[in-house]
Write a structure and sequence with these properties.
The strands form two sheets. Strands 2, 4, 5, 6, 9, 10 and 11 form a seven-stranded mixed sheet that branches. Strands 1-3-8-7 form a four-stranded antiparallel sheet, with no helix packed on it. The longest helix is centred in the C-terminal third of the chain and has 4 residues. It is 3% helix and 51% strand.
Length: 124
Amino acid sequence: VQLVESGGGSVQAGGSLRLSCTVSGDIDIPYCLGWFRQGPDEVREGVATIDTDGSTAYTDSVKGRFTISRDISKNILYLQMDTLTPEDSAMYFCGVGRGQEARWYIHAAYGMDYWGKGTQVTVS
C-alpha cells in the first residue's frame, strides 16, 4: 500500500487549502483513511478520519472548518481546510488503518498501518 500526499503550502490566516492523498494497493475491508498532523512537538495527532461505511470523525479543534472526503473511483482522499489559523501549521500525513472505526483512529495514530511521507502546511 502506498500513499502520496499533495496540496500543502503556505497560506495566510483565514485562508483555505485542500490536501489530497492518492492511495494505491490492495486494502482489505473494513479500513479507515485519515489525516493526521505533526507539529514541532513531534506528536502525531488525528485530524479527520473516514471509514469504509463513510462514517467520519474530527478532532475538536477543526470541527466546522475542515472536511474529509474521498473519491472511491479514483482512490483519492481529500481534506478541505477552511478558516486556517497559525495553530494548524504542521506536517500533514495521510494514513490507512485496518479493522477499526473512524472514531477510534481519530485518537489512535499509533494504530494506523500505512503512512504517506507528508505535506507541509504553514499558516501565517
